[in-house]
Write a structure and sequence with these properties.
The protein is 46% helix and 15% strand. It is an alpha/beta fold. The protein folds into 2 domains: 256 residues, 3-Layer(aba) Sandwich (EreA/ChaN-like  fold); 98 residues, no CATH class. α9 runs antiparallel to α13, α12 crosses α13 and α14 crosses α16. The longest helix has 25 residues.
């Protein structure tokens, strides 16, 4: 990071979050999943950079400033631009990489290239990916040298958007990187989400079967409903008294039988089981809100649990340097603070770790993207983005001469024209899988406060997914 006498955006967010919680309580954080009623789309907006009364002259000056400050790159292994980006990101121990669309091919390639550099050149050892705690267990077994089929591990993941060739190549590369390394120096892959609680319940059942089969026999009938993927439409059937009582009983059983369980397995596995029980409780609460159509409250529970799990995974794996991959709606910050409804994981991480967390956004200009075409998510279709939406940050970035580049918002503070443009821009683009026909959609949030830097691709292409098994 280049030296500056001004307080950084991350420092401002950290300080503001500590002193304004009571003043801002009650304000809702925006959700990409439910943004349809408050967004503009490319079809109804003009494109082009934001301009002031200076007109074309100021626009040209802004474009020249972006060109001079940007770090252009090519999507290939030998790209020196990607080397420079990784070096910049590596100044921060926790790097969040958030894609503004799950259906873009380049948003799988760029993380692969950056993760490889961060792991091999900069000592990052935890690759935390959006997926329920435990969902990447089979993938992690593969990358750390265990037996197993990578295709089967990928197809078992709950989220289809990781089932791409680029992510597959990343896991293959991690296995090669780990080959011959002591376990303490291996890169690991872990999920940090709390959405699919049946994954936690199944892990708990498997563990108890190996350390306390008698107790498992006592609770198996009560545990069974939690091991089934939720299909609840009635919130009263989710967080029932019996289910919550079982979770409390599991917590107590682990507490009172710790020495016995650790002796049979290990301290590491025991602590993981404790975390599975913790995440199970958060997952049940999240699904309860989902069934009640209280989406903002559900996101509040989910993203807070995500951040807590990321922090726990760093400590549990002994990995100070971590990469956090997921949707930008989780890795970004909020305008307010973490006490607000709908606060994102990135906000929680910023308030917890301050400038040790870097939020990198992957942004698109125009092109096309892919979304599931059926409920099983085994078939996919492509939609045009139609962007960039006028008066968004992407509309300004699209005017630059580089087709793809990186901008660090802290660095651009030294260029008044760019800093002023970022500060005055209050919208950014996303896609919504539930409304793909709308293409690029603008959400009314200032990107300069949500992220620390961006990777911009002017023209993107649709990702190819293998589909769930």
């Amino acid at each position: 990071m280049k030296p500056t006498t001004d307080i950084s955006r991350r420092e401002f967010v950290t300080v503001a979050g500590a002193v304004t919680a009571s003043a801002l309580a009650g304000c809702s954080g925006s959700s990409i999943d439910t943004a349809e009623s408050t967004t503009e789309t490319a079809n109804g907006s003009t494109t082009g950079a934001n301009t002031t009364d200076g007109g074309a002259t100021e626009t040209n000056d802004l474009v020249k400033a972006i060109d001079s400050q940007a770090v252009p790159f090519e999507l290939r292994s030998s790209s020196s631009g990607l080397d420079d980006i990784a070096t910049r990101l590596a100044e921060t121990p926790i790097v969040g990489i958030g894609e503004s669309s799950h259906g873009v091919k380049e948003f799988k390639t760029i993380p692969r290239q950056l993760v490889q550099r961060l792991v091999s050149d900069h000592g990052y050892r935890l690759v935390a990916i959006e997926g329920t705690l435990g969902d990447f267990a089979s993938v992690n077994a593969y990358v750390t040298g265990g037996e197993g089929d990578l295709d089967a591990a990928l197809s078992s993941l709950e989220f289809y958007f990781w089932q791409t060739d680029e992510i597959r190549r990343l896991f293959q590369w991690l296995r090669e990187f780990n080959d011959g390394r002591p376990s303490a120096d291996q890169a690991v892959v872990r999920g940090y989400d709390a959405q699919f609680y049946h994954i936690n319940a199944r892990a708990i059942r498997s563990y108890l079967d190996s350390v306390d089969s008698e107790y498992l026999a006592e609770i198996e009938d009560s545990l069974e409903p939690l091991t089934t993927r939720f299909q609840a439409t009635d919130p009263s059937t989710v967080g029932t008294d019996s289910k919550m009582a079982l979770i409390e009983d599991l917590e107590e059983r682990l507490r009172t039988h710790e020495s016995r369980y650790v002796e049979q397995r290990s301290e590491t596995e025991f602590r993981l089981m404790q975390r599975h029980v913790w995440t199970l409780e958060r997952g049940v609460r999240f699904v309860e809100k989902l069934a009640a159509e209280e989406y903002t409250q559900g996101k509040t529970i989910r993203d807070a649990a995500m951040a807590d799990n990321v922090a726990w995974l760093r400590e549990w794996t002994g990995s100070e340097r971590a990469i956090v991959m997921g949707n930008a709606n989780h890795t970004m910050r909020n305008v307010g603070d973490a006490s607000e409804d709908g606060a994102r994981m990135g906000q929680h991480l910023t308030e917890r770790f301050g400038s040790d967390y870097y939020s990198l956004g992957l942004l698109f200009g125009s092109g096309s993207f892919a979304v599931p075409a059926n409920h099983e998510r085994t078939e996919f279709e492509t939609f045009d983005l139609g962007g960039p939406v006028g008066k968004t940050l992407e509309a300004t970035l699209a005017e630059a001469s580089h087709p793809q580049f990186f901008l660090d918002f802290e660095d651009v503070r030294e260029r008044d024209s760019i800093d002023r443009s970022v500060a005055n821009t209050s919208k950014m683009q996303v896609t919504a899988p539930k409304a793909p026909e709308k293409g690029a959609m603008a959400i009314p949030e200032p990107p300069g406060e949500l992220m620390d830097g961006i990777v911009f691709i002017r023209d993107v292409s649709p990702a190819a997914f293998s589909g769930s098994a």
